[in-house]
Every structure is written in structure tokens, then in C-alpha cells.
Design goal:
The protein has 397 residues and is α+β, with helices and mostly antiparallel strands. It has eight helices and 17 strands. The strands form two sheets. Strands 1, 2, 3, 4, 5, 6, 9, 15, 16 and 17 form a ten-stranded mixed beta sheet that branches. A seven-stranded mixed beta sheet has the order 8-10-11-12-13-7-14. Helix 2 packs antiparallel against helix 6. The chain is globular. The model has no long low-confidence stretch (mean pLDDT 94).
């Protein structure tokens, strides 16, 4: 046992005395205090602590939707134990299908905010924490549905989590636009919070229909459903920050254009990494979810050969899409955001953007927000990754 005790009294990362468990409310405050320097964005530390407590009441988090996990020594009492590593997990409703279009509702756990305090780093605690977590999540909340796997978004590149079983998604890229102080197109109108519930339901119905269609050459597909709970979690974070910064909240939660059945809409969130008055703030309007009704490329592997639209619908949808994107540019400028980021749009949307006069660039992410996943098989082990559909920002956590 002596070999499993470090000279400074800290346990070895391989010690059998370590285990993952849930944090108490007091331990959560301690975690938030430790993480504030890294993740408070534009907020003060007291405001960040309030924000974290507030976000536990958001729909995605409340009613045990979010769990805070800690790696601790088994023999120490709650609220008096060293938190060697911590993270949060979110229960995410998801769909998985096979080549015949057989669809199963499953749980995918989203892992967020993996953090090891400075004094405990480089001792193997983070690796031990994640290894134990992978085992625990296999059955966590499985009374609600089968747990298919777990995902995370790495901000430390691809290698560390890949060694532990979370393989980076084959694609991690986005389209980036500059904010622009331009008139909002008359073809589009703003979406307010009360509009989102019905649109999320329509979106889910479209996704279910697309995924129920067999896909040649693809064994398994999976998608995290872009439901209202996901949108409201991001919007809750946005509302908290903007009230502190500007004493008001953005009214527009997105934009929509076109007639029902042929509509284009985007749901977005305002993210302030730094105060807008700071030098080079790099704040972002993230498009959480972009929907183009009738786009046959949508909700399918990007390698499919679908061509997007019937010719008679093409022009209307192009105009609607451009109107929505320009609305986003104007919204970003009004709220002093620097960029708009759209994660992994469909081939048809990419083509429209490329042919438009909207200045943009394509960014391949190599170090931050690397979508990575680990998938469980039926025999207690792990299996090859299915094709992840809709790797968009709404699922980020």
C-alpha cells in the first residue's frame, strides 16, 4: 500500500481507495470557485458562482438532468474530502438507427467541465476520474432508456481523451462570419423564446423521418436531439450574462424566413468570453441549430449523394437562408459580438454560402471544442463509433 501513497500524503492515482461519486451542494460551490479563473468568461467571480447555481435550475439540468461527479478518497467524509478531479454530465435524449432505419431512443451522456485543481495536476487523477466515469455512466440513469454512450468537447486537443477511449469525431469544423451593422432583411423575422418550443418539435419530427430512412453503407447513426431543453440551457446562460453586462436580455433568440413547409430558421445564443470593451474580446453569436425544411442532405451522413432541393424550390430557400444569416450578422453587431459561428452545415447550405456574397471562412478545430465520443456495446465493453449526425453547437456542453 505504501507504493500507492505519494510522499506528500496524496493518494496514488491507481489507489483502490479512490472512487467517483456525486458532489454535495457545498462541494459544488468549491468546484465553481476553483473553475472560475478558467470559465467565468466576462463575469465577476461572485456573478459566476450565481450563474452556476442558476444553471442548475435550467430545464436540461434540473430534475437530475445534470450530475456533478468528483474523484475522492472513499474514507473521507462529505464536505471534508479533497476533490482531486471533477466534471458534470448531462442526460441527452438521442436517437440511434441501423442500416434498415430501425430507430431506438437512447441516452447519450454529455460530459462537461472536466477540471483538476492546479495542486493535483500531473498525478494521473484526471485519467483515473475519466476511466471510472466511463464505467459508471454505462448504467447511469438507464432506468429511463438504454445508455448508448457518452460525448465530450475537448479544449485540450484530441490526444488525451482519445487515449482514454473518447475518439475525436472525424469532423470538427465550422463556418465563421463577421458581425455586420446591416439592415435586417424583410424576408426574415426574429424568433422569441415562446416560438422555440413548436419549432423544436417540428425539427425533431423531421429528424425522425430522415433517420428512419435506410442509409447504404452506414451501419449505425446517432444524433443528440435538438430539443427545447438544450436551447433553453444555452439561452439561460446568455440571459444571465447579458443582464449582468447590459441590464437587459436579447429579445431575438433566432430568425426565421419563408412559409411553413419551406422555412429556414436558426436558433442562436450570445456568448461573451470577455467584456465587449476589452481589447480583442472575440465574443461569438453561436448558431445552435440551423434548419432548412426540404433540404434532403439534412440529418444524414455528409457523404450522402443527395442534391438538396427540387429546382422549383431552390431560389426561395436560397433567399431565405441568406436572409437568416444576414439577420444573424446584424444581431451580432447590435449586441457587440465579433463573430457568428455555424457548426457543420449541410452540403447544400455550404454550397449556398460559398456562392453568396457573404464573407466567411472555414475553420478546422484542432484544439478546442473537439467533439469526442465513447460508445458501449451490449456485452459490457466498448464498440466502434456510429456516424454522428448533426454535430452542431446546441449539443455542446
Amino acid at each position: 500500500m505504501e507504493s500507492l501513497i505519494a510522499q506528500n500524503g496524496l493518494p496514488d492515482s491507481n489507489s483502490p481507495d479512490l472512487h467517483p461519486t456525486q458532489a454535495t451542494p457545498n462541494e459544488c460551490v468549491k468546484i465553481w470557485t476553483n473553475t472560475s479563473a478558467s470559465w467565468k468568461d466576462s463575469l465577476t467571480v461572485p456573478d459566476y458562482l450565481q450563474e452556476q447555481l442558476f444553471l442548475t435550475t435550467a430545464p436540461l439540468a434540473k430534475n437530475n438532468g445534470m450530475t456533478t461527479w468528483i474523484l475522492v478518497e472513499k474514507n473521507l467524509p462529505q464536505d471534508h474530502r479533497r476533490i482531486l478531479c471533477s466534471c458534470e454530465t448531462f442526460l441527452k435524449r438521442s436517437l440511434m438507427t441501423d442500416t434498415d432505419g430501425k430507430t431506438e431512443e437512447v441516452i447519450v451522456h454529455g460530459i462537461a467541465n472536466v477540471f483538476c485543481p492546479i495542486e493535483y495536476r500531473r498525478r494521473g487523477y484526471a485519467a483515473r476520474h475519466m476511466t471510472e466515469l466511463a464505467k459508471a455512466l454505462r448504467t447511469w440513469q438507464s432506468d429511463q432508456a438504454r445508455v448508448a454512450g457518452c460525448v465530450l468537447y475537448s479544449d485540450i486537443g484530441k490526444a488525451f481523451y482519445a487515449k482514454l477511449g473518447w475518439q475525436p469525431n472525424p469532423t470538427n469544423w465550422h463556418v465563421e462570419f463577421q458581425s455586420m451593422n446591416i439592415p435586417r432583411s424583410s424576408l426574415a423575422r426574429e424568433l422569441v423564446e415562446d416560438d422555440l418550443g413548436e419549432l423544436c418539435k417540428r425539427d425533431e419530427a423531421i429528424i425522425r423521418g430522415a433517420m428512419a430512412t435506410s442509409t447504404d453503407g452506414v451501419k449505425k447513426l446517432v444524433t443528440i436531439l435538438p430539443d427545447l431543453d438544450h436551447m433553453l440551457w444555452h439561452i439561460g446562460k446568455e440571459n444571465f450574462a447579458t443582464e449582468r453586462l447590459f441590464s437587459k436580455k436579447p429579445r431575438a433568440k433566432g430568425a426565421i424566413a419563408g412559409l411553413p413547409g419551406n422555412q429556414v430558421w436558426a436558433i442562436w445564443t450570445h456568448r461573451y468570453y470577455m467584456h465587449p470593451d476589452a481589447e480583442s474580446p472575440s465574443n461569438v453569436l453561436y448558431i445552435l441549430r440551423l434548419v432548412v425544411e426540404g433540404d434532403s442532405c439534412a440529418n444524414k451522413p455528409s457523404s450522402t449523394s443527395e442534391n438538396g432541393f427540387q429546382t422549383n424550390k431552390q431560389d426561395r430557400q436560397v433567399a431565405s437562408l441568406i436572409a437568416v444569416l444576414q439577420y444573424a450578422q446584424a444581431e451580432a453587431a447590435e449586441w457587440r459580438l465579433d463573430y457568428i459561428k455555424l457548426w457543420e452545415p449541410t452540403p447544400w447550405v455550404q454550397d449556398v454560402i460559398m456562392k453568396s456574397n457573404i464573407n466567411h471562412c472555414i475553420v478546422e478545430r484542432e484544439e478546442d471544442s473537439i467533439a469526442s465520443s465513447l460508445w458501449y456495446n451490449e456485452n459490457g465493453g466498448y464498440k466502434a463509433a456510429p456516424v454522428w449526425i448533426n454535430n452542431e453547437h446546441y449539443a455542446w456542453c
